[in-house]
Write a structure and sequence with these properties.
Helices cover 75% and strands 0% of the residues. The radius of gyration is 32 Å and the shape is globular.
Length: 523
């Protein structure tokens, strides 16, 4: 009893000293302010504001306009989330549990996309023979495909909002199914061009939806590498199947029955995998569903589109993917025609060179993508781009089918990781509420590059590829004079064994000048 009485006396004695405690900022062990401290702070701010209002009634109106009262709810919404909250909201391969099936469904969709894009190069020579058209006319399929991508960029976000992710994915697959049904019926060529427009719409929609989904997952570079690696795997299988069918006398359009079956499977798989996707809390981090403060106006679709187009990140991303995909599709679409016309290759054999190119892309995305987080995505993209330019020149310069086939495969190996790494970089730099719209425009720009570059290649080939020696001489002139002006020129001794052998076989003045220049650099 005496201890209790003594303790009570101490409490009564010390209570007057606590009436005006010093303004000490309390801290929890974690270093974060508690909700009670925030409430005390807000009560103090409101009390001071009311005292100023009572003391000067005339200036109360202007004071309230300059310093509006902030509610605890608004303050709580404005402060950054705690580490626990941020960790719980980051979706990954296994969170939520359906994500693993969604990623597999995305890989299946990209596998079908790769078959679609890579098989066109193997089928173009047979389309030209079927319809009796040239390079310039058959290149229209690339143009309409790009128009489909550009058109889809304006409606992707609206489609997602109206239909939801599951139905939007199924809608994109439905457009692809309609396009393949038209192609399989061997219609007149103008109808084929329209079918490629539908294919562009469907591909653009599923590409934008799936890129945004994968790019916002944990360890997104590896997941994007795996999904786009599936695209490369389809690029390997597509030319092999197409070449095997048409070389055995099967009509080229029957190949699209295979792609039709793949799209029917993707239609049901994506619909099931993304069913009830919007009801999951983790979906708030993906797409445009960002929580808004109380009273904050939700921007319209037109405003978000303007924000996306005015962003420097969107512009530079579109330019980069435009150049990247233009190079990729041009190499895949025209390397077979180049080997047939310029190198005299057998169509039944050189059709497999495209498979080697896409095999390199697949291997690069599955294997080299794991190096990107260690090296850094930006630095990794720079290195791969420079090396890709070097191997593109080798494809152009090596006058041998086997050597060019190897160079094309290595070029694909280097190009493979560029797209997923670049997508990860651009997504991190974009505001989350415009990612869907911005990536749709980036995808449309990439498809435009994949259409413009092959189309210009077709026009040039139509104009000058008939005279192969003229192309070779023009190429030699540019290379020889470019190297000579940079490094200087020196003549080799008469009777040099390399020069004599080439002189006996080619007897070409410009070719000899080119060999002389290269030997002066190497010897």
């Amino acid at each position: 009893m005496s201890a209790y009485t003594f303790g009570a006396a101490l409490e009564l004695t010390s209570s007057p000293k606590l009436t005006s405690p010093p303004a000490v900022k309390k801290k929890e062990p974690t270093g974060l302010e508690s909700a009670i401290e925030l409430q005390d702070y807000m009560q103090k701010v409101q009390t001071q504001h009311s005292q100023r209002s009572d003391g000067n009634a005339a200036g109360a109106g202007s004071s309230s306009k300059k310093a509006p009262t902030t509610t605890p709810n608004e303050l709580e919404m404005s402060r950054p989330p705690s580490p626990i909250q941020a960790t719980e909201m980051v979706p990954s391969w296994g969170f939520p549990s359906m994500n693993k099936y969604r990623i597999l469904a995305v890989c299946g969709v990209y596998f079908g996309n790769g078959i679609n894009d890579a098989s066109a190069g193997a089928l173009i020579p047979y389309m030209e023979k079927q319809y009796d058209i040239g390079y310039a006319i058959v290149s229209l399929i690339f143009i309409t495909n790009a128009i489909g991508f550009i058109t889809a960029a304006f409606f992707t976000d609206l489609t997602l909002e109206k239909l939801g992710r599951s139905r939007a994915c199924m809608f994109s697959e439905a457009m692809l199914i309609v396009g393949y049904v038209i192609m399989a019926c061997t219609p007149p060529f103008p109808v084929v061009v329209i079918a490629f427009l539908l294919l562009g719409l469907g591909l653009a929609l599923n590409l934008a939806l799936n890129n945004v989904f994968c790019a916002n997952l944990a360890n997104s570079t590896v997941i994007l590498g795996a999904s786009h690696g599936s695209y490369g795997l389809g690029g390997v299988v597509g030319p092999i199947m197409a070449t095997a069918l048409v070389s055995r006398g099967v009509l080229w359009s029957r190949f699209y029955l295979i792609t039709l079956g793949i799209r029917v499977i993707c239609f049901f798989c994506t619909g099931w995998a993304f069913h009830n996707y919007e009801s999951e809390p983790s979906s708030l981090k993906i797409g445009n569903r960002i929580p808004r403060r109380d009273g904050e106006i939700q921007p319209t679709k037109l405003q978000m589109m303007k924000r996306a187009l005015n962003s420097k990140v969107t512009v530079f991303a579109a330019l980069f993917i435009f150049c990247y995909q233009g190079s990729e599709v041009s190499t895949s679409g025209w390397v077979i025609s180049f080997l047939i016309e310029a190198r005299g290759g057998d169509p039944a054999k050189v059709g497999y060179v495209t498979a080697g190119f896409w095999g390199g892309i697949t291997l690069g995305r599955f294997v080299l993508s794991h190096l990107a987080p260690r090296i850094g995505e930006k630095r990794f993209v720079y290195i791969l781009t420079v090396l890709s330019i070097a191997f593109q020149l080798l494809v152009w310069l090596i006058p041998n089918i086997v050597g060019e086939a190897v160079a094309v495969s290595l070029l694909g190996l280097l190009l493979g990781p560029v797209y997923p790494c670049a997508t990860t970089i651009f997504t991190r730099l974009m505001d989350r509420d415009v990612q869907m719209t911005a990536l749709s425009f980036v995808s449309s720009a990439g498809s435009s590059g994949g259409a413009v570059a092959p189309f210009l290649t077709g026009l040039l080939a139509q104009a000058i590829l008939r005279e192969v020696p003229d192309i070779e001489e023009t190429r030699v002139i540019h290379i020889s004079y470019g190297i000579s002006s940079t490094y200087g020129h020196s003549q080799l001794k008469t009777g040099h064994p390399v020069r004599s052998a080439i002189h006996k076989q080619l007897n070409g003045r410009l070719v000899l000048r080119w060999v002389t220049t290269w030997e002066s650099l190497l010897l």
